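Subject: sequence -> C-alpha cells, single chain

Hey, anyone have a minute? Need the predicted structure for the following. Not urgent.
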Amino acid sequence: MTRIATFNVNGVNGRLPVLLKWLGESDYGQHLLEVGAPSILCGDYNVVPTQIDAVVPRRWLGDAVYFPECRQAYAKMLKDGWVDGVRRIHPEKGIYTYWNFS
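Reply:
Had a minute. Here:
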C-alpha cells in the first residue's frame, strides 16, 4: 500500500501555478493508477471541489480555492481514477470537505 500525504499551497500570492501543476501533473500518482497499485492520496488540497463542499460557497468566490481552474484540475484527478473518499461515503450536502480555520 502506498500512501501519499500532501499539504498543497493555497493558490494566492502568485502560487496558483504551483498548485495547478501539482493537481494536474502528479506523475507519481498517475503511475500508481496505471499499474493498479493500492494507493491512498490524502492531504490538504486547498480546493473547494464543488458547491456542496463548503458551508457558504459564495464566500470563496474570488479566492484561488474556488477558481474554476483549481476545481477543474481536482475533477480531472477524479476522472483519471482517484476517488474522493468523503464524497463516496457522503455524497450529499452537510458533510463539508473545506473550511477555514480563521
